[in-house]
Each structure stands twice: as structure tokens, then as C-alpha cells.
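Handout for the seminar on molecular recognition.
Each group receives one record of this type.
Step one: identify the two inputs.
Step two: read the structure output and locate the region that could contact coproporphyrinogen I.
Step three: write two sentences on what you found, then compare them with the reference statements printed after the record.
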Amino acid sequence: MKLLEVLNGAKAWPPPAWLMRQAGRYLPEYRELRSQAGDFLSLCTNPELAAEVTLQPIRRYGFDAAILFSDILILPWALGQDLRFAEGEGPLLPPLQSRAELAKLDPARAISGTAPIMETVRRVKAGLPSETALIGFAGSPFTVACYMLDGKGGAKAGNEFPRTRLLCFEDRALVEGVIELLTETTITYLQAQVDAGADCVMLFESWSGILTSSLFRDFVIAPTKRIVTALKAKNPRLHIIGFPRHCGLMLAEYVTATGITAVGLDSVTDAVTAIAACPPGTVFQGNLDPLLLRLGGEPLTQGIKAVLNGFRGQSHIFNLGHGITPDVKPEAIALLMDTIRAA
Ligand code: 1CP
């Protein structure tokens, strides 16, 4: 599998490619299945439909990797926190109020509550071509904690999770408690995905950019290092991709201190800067601006070539800097894959 070779440190030209949110509302076949399933949570917990949705973009575009179709909020939901996805609003949860409420969440449910997800992993693995890698994933503890404490998404929780950031000072023990629970259960949850057939795993730290450097060390680097160390102790050859979105100057420290195999870059971090900042041999994933997919045509092909050339000579996995948005035309993704293959 080309993706695993690059994660092992090989350099490939053209690089292997997959895209964040490659399954989703921009695809007509996704919208069709989604309407059959009812709400989004029912889709995530229906192994037959979730596996089909995972495979749809692979059939259409032949990406080098499939990413399990699920959501980072499945873990807190499995542990016992209410969750619903309001149409057009993203996730909604009752914000955790106290350590007493936190104590009601049950870590044992990281296994029993996620059984349908593991069934999806097994089905996808069985349905994938042998050259296509299967990526399992979880949210990183801090990013998931933002949703558990603010109760809604970053786009909705104006000013970027204000309650979570205040709690870091007002009731730090509560934030630490949530992160502790998530760190332990994320290890269990990702190990179960590996046991079910995931070839590598990715940690989404989508909101790492809202923390001060000091809090970033405590709430991003330390838990990530614990997860990576625990998973590698059990699976020495497992590759773990970290995505510390908008982490800015903390990038090199994140890469060095956590021990992750590869780092996903957001679109605002350019190749020259990232390569100069990170230790030699760092494996990079990224980082086309998904906005260009809405434009298509020449701006898109120029943007793709800039990413390809920017990381040429490095171990690089082509991806976006964030997920595909629902307004992207499926033809733009076909143009993207043709451009990469012709490079
Ligand atoms: O069909 C729909 O209307 C639901 C839209 C949707 C989809 C397709 C949500 C709700 N989640 C997903 C799938 C999803 N989420 C995947 C599937 C695999 C793939 O990439 O194809 C993955 C990996 C995620 C991960 C995820 N969920 C992240 C991390 C990546 C990122 O986007 O930064 C985050 C932050 C979430 C939370 C979430 N779930 C859904 C939405 C709309 C959001 C974002 C809310 C916000 O904070 O604004």
C-alpha cells in the first residue's frame, strides 16, 4: 500500500492521495444513502450503510486510502453523553457542568458502545481493494473536550469555544478530568479499530489553535504523547497521523514531543515553513486549501501543483488542509486526482 510505504518513510512520486471528508454531502450517492438512514447518527451507527458510504469515494476516484465513516463525537456519545446532529447546525450536546456529571460517563462503554463502529471497520476492510489503506480515527482529547464542554461546534460556539477556554482557568480540574477520561478511552477505542482491521490511525486536533502555548503543552502534546506511546507499545509498527490544525509555532514541538508518525498540515502553513521547522525525515500530509475546489479550473490545478512541488523530495501524502465542503462539485475532485496522477 502506497500510503503505508510513505508513512514508513518512503518518498513516492506522485504521492499517495486521500482527502478529508472524501465521503459526504458533495456526493449524490452519499445524499441518497443519508436520506435512507434518517439522521446522521443513525448513519454512523449502521455498519452496512456506514461501510457503503466509506467505500463510495474509493470506487469513484480510487484514492490511496479510505477513512472510516464516523465522527469524532461518537466516543463521548458511546460513553453516555447525549448527542444529536441538528440539520445544518452540526453537533449539539448538553454541556458537561461538573465533575459529578463527568463521573457518570462510563469508560467501559468505549468498547461496548462503539461495537457498530468496529463492525463498520471489518466490513470496509473486507470490501477494499488490496492497495487501499484503511484509516481509523478519533478526535484528540482536547478537541473532543471542546464539544463536551461547550455543547456545540466551533462555527456555532461563537468566539471559539469560550466556555472551554474559560474553564481552563476557572475549573481546570474539570477540563483535566475530561481530558484524562478521553485520553484513556481514546487508546481503547483506537486499539479496537486496529484490531478490527484499520491499517493506521489519525488523531484530529481540529481546535488546537485556540490554546496558549502552555495549555497546548498540557492539553494537546501530553495526551497525544500518551496515546501514541500506549498504541505503539502494543503495535510497534502502527502509524499514527496527527492533525494539529492551526497550531502555528507549536508545530515542530508537536511533531518531536508526541512521537506521531506523520503530521497533517492546515492550508495556512506553507511547505517551505513546515519543512524548515520540522526535523528532517518528518512525514507530511496536506494541505491544499479546500476553497480552491469550489473554483475548479486553472486556480485549482495551479494550487495542486504548488502543493505537489512544495513537498517534492519529502515523504508526503497529498490531502487538503481541511475537509471537502458540501458545495464542491464531484468533477472538481476528478480533476484533482487527474492532476496528481499526471504529475
Ligand atoms: O451528513 C451530514 O450532514 C453530516 C456532516 C458530517 C459528516 C459527513 C459530520 C457532522 N461529520 C461527518 C463525517 C466525519 N467527521 C468524518 C468522516 C470521514 C471523512 O472524512 O470522509 C470525519 C473524519 C469527521 C471528523 C470530525 N467531526 C472532525 C475533525 C475534522 C474536522 O473537520 O476538523 C470534527 C471537528 C467533527 C465535528 C463535526 N461533525 C459534523 C460537523 C458538521 C462537525 C463540525 C462542527 C463544527 O465544529 O463546526
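Reference statements: Residues 20-25, 34, 40, 67, 69, 71-73, 85, 90-91, 137, 153-155, 204, 206, 323 surround coproporphyrinogen I (CB under 6 Å). The first strand starts at residue 65 and ends at 67.
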